[in-house]
Design a protein that fits this description.
- It is a single chain.
- Helices cover 54% and strands 16% of the residues.
- The protein is α+β, with helices and mostly antiparallel strands.
- The termini are far apart.
- 47% of the residues are buried.
- It comes from Sulfitobacter sediminis.
Length: 585
């Protein structure tokens, strides 16, 4: 029997849970139960209240149809505000954040399902949204901007995957609910400035004053180490110690764009530290978190908290500025904003974004040949060429080391350059030199989570497998929402494989593939782990999928990074690959 297909105009909402694969990897049952509770208590009742119809669910995602675009956006805003309230008392690692895309367009109705460009665009808009935020098409924005009392940020025209035309997009987030205008041309000519104000001691014991001051000083030092933006000196920030002051006014007085403030409370043997990151121009909180700890070794506690807070603040500033840079035209931005845009594209692991990023990066090099970070980022791009299998490691490893060393000549404190030097030395087989470069990077910037993942990779190749797993755990603790976690999982799965923990290796490799499907290492690690676990048919099936996905892969570039200092590791790797049908010498 023919199924009747009809058309109509509808508002479409596409929503998914950010970091779903990571959450499932940590606790599958708990994640599913929490997701079910959020839907039952908040999301589904709001959809019903606004007249929406759930078309289908896709694991962590929802496709919803509304008869009115105003109802669709109002419901989406209520969902995100409700989720923000639910997350207020939770550690960031335990928070659930949805991305939502809203479009108004013509749809095809087939039985109970819907199809067409209108649906596809909603899905692409969802991918552009920040976790906890909403992204809408221009058509939606035009219909709702004067009718529901919220303001959107103009993201400019965007090219959306598999959509033939560019579309202007608009964004909203509950943490930045008022209008946020794009910075003027003059403001894009330099990096934003950050200040860390002295943390307040709200405990009854004045002895904890030194802890609050030490935390503020450590944060100033750690944030300076990122080299991403200037940080105002401790002496200037501490002029406000012990005074009543408005953070936005004080920040403006110091010439800061972003301010960090916080407090320390102690009760018995428990300490609570609150920290917030504030946009000085608007007074909006961009990030806030509570840290509850037992007081044991007070200096160890200070080190731990300062590392964690710095690891979360710096990427938040860069992401926030990056969104503004992406929204501006190329003529509107200066060197710093252009570099932020390039780094975001490199981090995406998307082939087209990376291709565009390297063209833009080489253009910046022509304009700024003495910029150390440019040299380090080109070396990073070289490593991605090797990891993705697009070029053999012999072709680019010398260039990678050359660029890294040039970056360090220009700026000996560039922690990223040391990480890239470490990877280059790895590709040359100089593992002790690589580890030395890893250690120097962490010494320069101990709160950069990704540096621990790169050191973990070197330790894996050295055969220090348990220590490697410990470093991966540090990276996940310092930077739980890092966009490069799936790429880090590639190497974590390899360490687990060599330890003979095949079930865990399979789980982590699959988590990596879910996050970044176009990295061949994770597929190869999965194949070998499946083979070693006695799952021959599954190994062969994935081997066929691997060869279809990567028909032009340089296999030598992939397999070489499974050769560790202990020959037994490569034999284990080969054994699993042979089960899947690969013939490796």
């Amino acid at each position: 029997m023919d199924i009747k297909i009809t058309r109509r105009l509808a508002a479409i909402v596409s929503a998914d849970l950010a970091g779903y694969s990571r959450l499932m990897g940590i606790d599958e049952v708990g994640t599913l139960n929490t997701l079910r509770r959020h839907r039952q208590e908040l999301i589904d009742p709001l959809i019903s209240e606004h007249g929406g119809r759930i078309v289908k669910t896709m694991g962590d995602g929802l496709l919803i149809e509304f008869p009115s675009v105003v109802s669709a956006v109002a419901c989406s805003v209520s969902v995100q505000e409700g989720m923000a309230k639910r997350n207020e008392e939770l550690q960031e690692v335990d928070q659930f954040a949805f991305r939502i895309g809203v479009n108004l367009g013509d749809i095809l109705i087939e039985d109970e399902d819907i199809h067409g460009d209108g649906v596809n665009i909603a899905a692409r808009l969802e991918a552009l949204a920040e976790p906890g935020g909403i992204c809408v098409s221009e058509r939606v924005h035009d219909d709702v901007r004067d009718r529901i009392g919220i303001n959107f940020v103009d993201l400019g025209k965007r090219e959306l995957k598999n959509i033939s035309r560019t579309l202007r997009c608009w964004a909203w987030h509950p943490a930045r609910a008022e209008t946020q205008k794009i910075k003027s041309t003059s403001e894009f000519l330099k990096a934003p400035v950050l200040v860390v104000f002295p943390f307040n001691n709200f405990s009854s014991d004045p002895e904890y004053e030194f802890f609050a001051d030490g935390l503020s000083e450590d944060l100033t030092t750690l944030l300076s180490a990122y080299r991403d933006f200037p940080v105002i000196a401790r002496n200037s920030a501490f002029m406000f110690k012990g005074k009543e002051f408005d953070v936005t006014e004080a920040g403006q007085q110091l010439g800061a764009d972003y301010a960090v403030e916080g407090s320390v409370r102690v009760a018995g043997n428990r300490m609570r530290v609150n920290a917030q990151l504030i946009d000085v121009s608007s007074g909006h909180h961009l990030w806030a978190q509570k840290f509850d700890r037992n007081i044991e070794d007070i200096f160890t506690l200070q080190d731990e908290l300062s590392l964690q807070i710095a690891a979360m603040i710096s990427p938040t500033v860069v992401r926030h500025e990056g969104a503004r840079a992406n929204a501006a035209t190329s003529e509107d931005i200066g060197h710093w904003a252009a570099m932020v845009r390039i780094r975001q594209r490199l981090l995406s692991a998307d082939a087209q974004n990376i291709s565009e990023a390297i063209v833009a990066l080489l253009e910046q090099e022509r304009k700024h040949p003495e910029d150390s970070m440019i040299q380090a980022l080109i070396a990073w791009f070289n490593s991605m060429e090797i990891v993705s299998g697009t070029k053999g490691f012999r072709e680019v490893r010398a260039e990678m080391v050359k660029r890294s060393k040039r970056a360090l000549q220009l700026d000996p404190t560039n922690y990223l350059a040391y990480n890239m030097l470490a990877i280059g030395e790895q590709f040359h087989g100089h593992l002790d030199a690589a580890l030395q470069a890893n250690e120097k990077s962490i010494e320069l910037n101990p709160s950069a989570g990704l540096s621990y993942a790169w050191r973990a990779t070197t330790k894996c190749l050295l055969g220090q497998l348990e220590e490697s797993i410990e470093d991966f755990a540090i990276m996940e603790r310092l930077s739980p929402m890092d966009p490069l976690l799936p790429a880090s999982d590639v190497n974590k799965s390899r360490s687990l494989l060599f330890l003979g923990r095949f079930d865990e290796a399979i789980k982590i490799a699959r988590r990596s593939i879910d996050g970044v499907p176009n990295l061949p290492y994770s597929h190869v690690a999965l194949i070998s782990a499946l083979g070693n676990a006695g799952m021959a048919e599954a190994a062969k099936d994935h081997a066929r999928e691997f060869q279809e996905r990567f028909p032009d892969i340089h296999l030598s570039s992939v397999f070489v990074n499974f050769r560790t200092r202990d020959p037994k590791d490569f034999e284990l790797f080969k054994n699993g690959m042979k089960v899947a049908g690969f013939d490796i010498d």
